[in-house]
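seq as requested:
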Amino acid sequence: MLGLHWAAVDLERGTLIVSSNLQRVDGALQIGPTKTASSLRTLPLPPLVLEALRAHRERQAQERVAAGERWTETGLVFTSRVGTPIEPDNLRRSWYPLRDRLGLSLRFHDLRHTCLTLLLDLGVPPHIVRQIAGHSDIGVTMKVYAHASLDEQRKALGSLSDRLG
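struct tokens:
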């Protein structure tokens, strides 16, 4: 997320290309390539996300004007108030107050896990969830994210009972 460039976001077509990440190299934050070839992917964006990105782009334009000469143009979607990359620790620190207001007990990275688990719970085929996650192996998707709840197990065995009965 912190390595996402506006050039990789197409708000008209509703897509986002995952092509880079932000990483620390020799103590400095740098934009680098995705971790693996399967991490490089194009994702469709749901309307809710498109709306949020449009609003964010407008807020960022206002921050650019307010910063004036202090603004450093990086082309990143998520920046500090002066356009520089966001320090990952600062992102985590800013997440905690929001998380607490929402009554959640998740780490920021847990949002990814929650998203992928919910997609599987909604019946999205595992191969689609694998593509969204950028996993090279579907086994990772299934091992890490596919946790059948008791209700899901009950429903599955109920369906089998109905078929056999």
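The longest helix spans residues 47-67.
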